[in-house]
Design goal:
Helices cover 20% and strands 15% of the residues. The protein is an alpha+beta fold. It has a single domain, classed as Beta-grasp domain (Ubiquitin-like (UB roll), Roll), CATH 3.10.20.30. It has a five-stranded mixed β-sheet. It is globular.
Length: 104
C-alpha cells in the first residue's frame, strides 16, 4: 500500500490482510497518521483521502465514522475515510491514499 504525504513524499508499506490501513501506517512509521485513539474510531487523527480508483473497493464510511469525519476533519472530501476503519484485503493490493496536510 502507498501513502502519499501532503508534500508529495511517498511511503510504500507492506500490510497484512485483516489489519487496518492505520495499523500498517503506524507500524511502518508513516508520518501524518497520528492515530491518537489507537484505532477505536474516536478521534479522526488517521484521516486519509482514498484515491478514486480504490474508493469502490474500500466502500463508504459507516455511521460513526461518518459523524467523526463531519466533526473532526477540516478538509473532508468524497473519498475521506478514517484509515483505522479500512481493513486490508487482497483486493486492496496497491491501495493508494493521500494524507491531509494537517490532522486534528
Amino acid at each position: 500500500m502507498i501513502f502519499v504525504g501532503s508534500a508529495g513524499s511517498s511511503y510504500t508499506v507492506d500490510a497484512t490482510a485483516g489489519d487496518s490501513v492505520m495499523a500498517a501506517a503506524v507500524r511502518n512509521g508513516v508520518p501524518g497518521i497520528v492515530a491518537e485513539c489507537g484505532g477505536n474510531c474516536s478521534c479522526a487523527t488517521c484521516h486519509v483521502w482514498v484515491r478514486e480508483e480504490f474508493a469502490p473497493l474500500v466502500g463508504p464510511p459507516g455511521d460513526m465514522e461518518d459523524d467523526l469525519l463531519d466533526m473532526g476533519v477540516s478538509d473532508r472530501r468524497s473519498t475521506s475515510r478514517l484509515s483505522c476503519q479500512i481493513r486490508v484485503t487482497p483486493e486492496l493490493d496497491g491501495l493508494t491514499v493521500d494524507i491531509p496536510p494537517e490532522q486534528p
